[in-house]
Amino acid sequence: MTSSKQQEDVARFVERFAAEMTEAGMQRMASRVFAALLASESGSLTSAELAEQLRISPAAVSGAIRYLTQVGMVGRERDPGTRRDRYVLHHELWYETFTRRDQILTRWEKVLRDGAEILGPDTPAGARVAETAEFFEFIQHELQAMLTRWHTHRTAQSAAEASG
């Protein structure tokens, strides 16, 4: 059982991390719900548990879950033997999130390259758009290399934990 002080510390962490995610552009309520799930022991909570912990309405939980589900950060599972849904963080959440981001960058790069061609490489607008496409291409390569290194790191870490 956790102490009252520990619960207060966790609540402060949840609000602090949620504020950081909100500052980065995520919806405020979705940030709070995500941070609460991240800080939960099992990585999953019901709507009622989220509403109670965050002191928000069930409608606010529902809207936040809808957003988090749409962006692929949270899944929905049925509590065995009940009609209640349990909201669960995806396994390898950040790896999957950044992999999806890489796919978005690929699409943006293609559209930007097409735009640069349409605008003309000798025009200021065409040069700006071409440079933006080049930037996204660079980021894509770096992101893919980083994700590969992360996957290798996690695999080695898991093997070490299993053997030790």
Can you characterise this structure?
With 164 residues, the protein is mostly helical. The chain folds into two domains: 86 residues, Orthogonal Bundle (Arc Repressor Mutant, subunit A); 71 residues. It has six helices and three strands; from the N terminus they run H-H-E-H-H-E-E-H-H. Strand 2 and strand 3 form a beta hairpin. The two termini are 29 Å apart.
| Number of E strands | 3
Spell out the helices and strands N to C. HHEHHEEHH
Helix content: over 70%
Into how many domains do the coordinates divide? 2
Percentage of residues in DSSP E strands = 5-15%
Please state the average pLDDT score: 90
Helix/strand structural class: mainly alpha
Instruction: Going across the biggest sheet, name each strand in turn.
Output: 1-3-2
The CATH class designation of the largest domain is Mainly Alpha
> Which superfamily, in CATH terms, is the homologous superfamily of the largest domain?
Winged helix-like DNA-binding domain superfamily/Winged helix DNA-binding domain
Enumerate the spans where pLDDT stays under 50 for 5 or more consecutive residues: none
What is CATH's topology name of the largest domain? Answer: Arc Repressor Mutant, subunit A
**First-last Cα distance:** 29 Å
Sheet having the most strands: 3 strands, antiparallel
Radius of gyration: 21 Å
Shape: extended
What's the architecture of the largest domain in CATH terms?
Orthogonal Bundle
Helical segment tally? 6
